[in-house]
Specification:
Layout (H helix, E strand, L loop, with lengths): L5 H10 L6 H22 L33 H5 L5 E2 L2 E2 L7
Antiparallel strand pairs: 1-2
Length: about 100
């Protein structure tokens, strides 16, 4: 027996402000029944509660990051601006993208 009754489905549909035809209500009831059966199958798996939750399906390789050699060193703005093709004051001028 399903935990979802026609009254519950109608109540949820009313709360969502959607009207359901009898055919749609039966289709939703069937889908809920299928979901419940699948949940029961999962719950019937032996020792399912002992299985660790898998949040990422692949093994992650942890590697160390390189040290940042320039940590704490500041580069003068004049030196940075030498790489830009168009400069106005201390700002880099970029081409207009949106008309």
């Amino acid at each position: 027996m399903s935990n979802f009754t026609e009254e519950m489905i109608d109540n949820y549909a009313d709360k969502l402000l959607i009207g359901l035809t009898e055919e749609e209500r039966k289709m939703i009831q069937t889908e809920f029944d299928d979901i419940e059966k699948d949940m029961e199958l999962i719950n019937d798996i032996p020792n399912i509660k002992d299985v660790e939750v898998l949040s990422y399906p692949f093994e992650m390789e942890v590697s160390e990051l390189r040290s940042d050699d320039n940590e704490g060193k500041e580069i003068p703005i004049d030196e940075l601006l030498r790489n830009a093709s168009r400069v106005e004051g201390r700002e880099v001028e970029v081409p207009k993208v949106v008309g």
